[in-house]
Amino acid sequence: MTVGLKNALQSKVITGGFAMKQNRKAFITAEITGVMYSSRMSPYLPVTPQQIIDDAVRSYEAGASVAHIHTRNPSTGEPDADIAQMREIVGGIQRRCDMIVCVGSGGSQTMSLEERLAPISELQPEMADCNADSMNVALSDASEKILAGFGWRKPYLRETGGCAFTNACANMELFVRAMNTNETRPQFEIYDPGMLNNVACFVKCGIVKSPVYLQFVLGVQGGIPASVKNLLFLKETADLLLGEMGYIWCAAAVGRHQLPMAAAALAMGGNVRVGLGDSLYLRTHVLAQSNAEQVTAVRSIADALDVELAVPSEVRSILGLKGSDRVVLA
């Protein structure tokens, strides 16, 4: 990162009311495969359990402390909800490194509530995502740009235009209570400012326990657009609603917005998520050849901003996680 960009980010943060903290620690999450993209869009997207495990370990070696994982059909690459694969991936990562694994319980809007809840009760993971409201994630327009031969991808995209990603308050409570029962930390996925109201409501009711962990996701159709101004707004709204209790936050952005929002988040005092699940590219027109390449890019930004990266043991302490030894792998 150039000195000019570093100073510009610091200036932007100061004008937004947030002072740059030197020598603080932040952590990086790698969104290993996600559910948005197809391996036909990039040959580097991990699909099989072994590919996902290998890419997660490489991300750990590059500086990521958390892996956010989903499962896919190994033959077609289509997102699925296979518990056996999820257990294989979590176990494979934990046997090779100390990385924290955040299990994807959101999966896809086409999955049933039972499929989405199953990883929490079956694996009792350290952490799992919890989408904080219903929303449209209409990707049907993108299907018209996809040529023949993409298999499941084109009909999947078209299907998203006909159904909302439903996360009714009663269902959110089911997720949170299931996580509480299994000592799993919720990672609240925040795609829009109004979702913070739901989290604050659960906090006031005593359902959500401290520390509250927020994952801001910017740039998804149906959610808040990716910009520094909108990231500041999310942070200010979280301060207003949850500041008294305290919370930890992380920022992610899709596509070309990924690294610019990562830089802004680090300058603002937040944590960062990158990965092929959110963007297939390292820079304009250049595909990332692994999640680790994107992690390395964020590590360079952190170094330029004098932000030290936290190791998994420190992140477990920050988020109040129970430890990988209590995840059910058999």
Description:
- 41% of the residues lie in helices and 16% in strands.
- With 330 residues, the chain is α/β, with parallel strands linked by helices.
- The chain has a single domain, classed as TIM Barrel, CATH 3.20.20.
- It has an 8-stranded parallel barrel, surrounded by 8 helices. Strands 1-14 form a two-stranded parallel ribbon. It has a two-stranded antiparallel ribbon with strand order 4-5.
- Helix 2 runs parallel beside helix 3.
- The longest helix has 15 residues.
- It starts with a helix and ends in an 11-residue tail after the last helix.
- The relative contact order is 0.19.
Number of helical elements: 12
CATH class: Alpha Beta
How many E-type strands?
14
Oligomeric state of the chains in view: single chain
